[in-house]
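Notes from the 1:1 (GR / supervisor)

We went over the backlog. Supervisor wanted to see one worked example end to end before approving the batch request, so GR pasted a single chain during the call. The sequence is below; no edits were made to it. Supervisor asked that the structure be written out right there so they could see what the output format looks like.
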Amino acid sequence: MPKIGIIGGSGMLGRAIAHALLDRMALPASDLWISNRSGGKAGFEQFPEVEVTTDNARLGEACDIVILSVPPALAPDIGMDVPAKLVISVMAGVTLDRLQAMTGSDRVVRAMSSPAAELGLAYSPWAAAPAVGPADRAVVTRIFSACGLTDEVDDEAHLDHFTAMTGPVPGFVAFYADCMIDYAVKAGIAPAVADRAIRQLFFSAGAMLAHGQASPADHVRQMIDYAGTTAAGLSAMGNSPIREAIAEGLDAAVRKARSLG
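Structure output shown during the call:
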C-alpha cells in the first residue's frame, strides 16, 4: 500500500477524503500523513497512527502520493518539490500546467471532489497529465472510488464545469431546497415541518435518481404525461426563464473557477 499524504488534510474536503481512504480504501492509518498549519490531530483522534506535520516538504519526502487540498489562493505557499511523486490536486481552478510548475512533478492529476466523500457519496471527475501512466491512473481511480463515483475526463477544461456543478455539496441543491422551504413557510406551514418535509423530499428524490434507470428528463416527461398537479407546475417552470437563470448561475461559477488558475 503506498503512503498517501494530504496537504490541507484537516480542512473540510481534505479531512473528508482522508476518512474515505481510511474507511473504504482500507488505507492503514500508519500509511496516511496529514499536513496542516497547527500540527494538531483534530478530526483524527480515533486514528493515532496517522502522522501529522506542519512541514509540507517532510510530507512530500515521506509519501508516494501527495494530495493537495488547500484553498486555491494558498497554492503558491505549498512550497514543495516532489519530482518523483504522483500529485493529485482537488484545488478549484488550478491547472495541470500550474501543478507541474508548483511541484516539479510531471505525474500530476487535477480533480474535483466534495465533502460528501466522507459519506462515500462524492462525484470526483479528474484529468491527468500525459506522464500519468496506467498504474497511476488505477491508483487515482481507487482513491476517488473510495470517495464515491469517479470518471476520468478527456478535456481538462470540463473540470471547471464540474467545479460549478458537482463540487459544491449541497450547494445549488440547497438553494432550491431553501426556495421550497421559503414557499411553504409563506403558505403558513410551520418552519420545522417545512424543513423536515423538504429534506425528506430531496433525500428520496436523490435516492430515486441515483438507483433508478430513468433519467431526470424521463421523470419530468412522465410527470407531464400524467397531467396532474405536478405537470401544471413543471409546465409553468418550463415556460419560465428558470433554465436560463440556472445556466447563468453555473456560468458565473465556471468563470470564477477559471479565474483561480
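Supervisor's comment: The chain has a mean pLDDT of 95.
Batch request approved.
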